[in-house]
Amino acid sequence: MSKFLTILTFMFILQEVAFSQDPDEREFNKGMVQIEEKNYYAAISHFTKSIRLNPKYDKAYYNRGLVKNIILNYEGAILDFNKAIQLNPRHYMAYFNRGMAKYYLEDYKAAVRDFEKSIEYGLRDPNAYNNLANAKRKIGDNLGALDDYSSAIQLDPKFANAYYNRGAIKWSFRDKAGACKDFKKAGDLGIKEGYELVNKYCK
Q1: How far apart are CA 150 and CA 163, in angstroms?
Q2: Which domains can be identified in the chain, with CATH numbers?
Q3: What digits encode the pLDDT tens for the residues 14-34?
Q4: Interior CA angle at 149 toward 192 and 168, to 5°?
Q5: What is the rounded CA–CA span in Å between residue 149 and residue 162?
Q6: Mean of the per-residue pLDDT values of the chain
Q7: The pTM is what?
Q8: What are phi and psi of 189, to 5 degrees?
């Protein structure tokens, strides 16, 4: 019954433009321009050049990993996020997006750990909790998922997917009233499948 994983899109790290940019920063910014134009392979090339010029440039590893996620190269993305985390151990967005890659590779336990780390290190975004809940469902931790969907809703009371997903969990727990309430709320917020489930199961 639940929606698929929601994604934080284009959460790239920007570099301030300055007249006295170093060569690694120039290549980084060229990569950002290519992302805006959806030239993803060109963006990877510029981030790679930036890394060659500055092997400790965690932002370049991170953004290159994000682009690899976009082009579905999840294994390559994980390698870049690993390096970004090695250089910046509290890089919560690197943990979050590494979790995304691991989720799509069906390594759900590892995805749970990364989503949890992203939250521990400061990511306060409802998608983080929703995605953590989705990964927990995949490993059978429905109680944990229920709590995380509720946390997502606390952060964003209009987060339709989280209501829908929480409703599916409640339904599995035979909490028909709670499930129907969440499905209706999801429908009110724009997910038509919520209304369809209310009409099918909640009359």
Answers
A1: 8
A2: 136-203 (1.25.40.10)
A3: 555 444 479 999 999 999 999
A4: 50
A5: 5
A6: 91
A7: 0.91
A8: -95, 5
User: Residue type at 103?
Assistant: Y
Q: What are the tokens at 119?
A: 């939250």
pLDDT in tens, 63-76: 999 999 999 999 99
**Residues belonging to the chain:** 203
- For residue 51, give the amino acid letter: I
DSSP letters spanning the chain: -PPPPP--TT-PPP----TT--HHHHHHHHHHHHHHTT-HHHHHHHHHHHHHH-TT-HHHHHHHHHHHHHTT-HHHHHHHHHHHHHHSTT-HHHHHHHHHHHHHTT-HHHHHHHHHHHHHTT---HHHHHHHHHHHHHTT-HHHHHHHHHHHHHH-TT-HHHHHHHHHHHHHTT-HHHHHHHHHHHHHTT-HHHHHHHHHH--
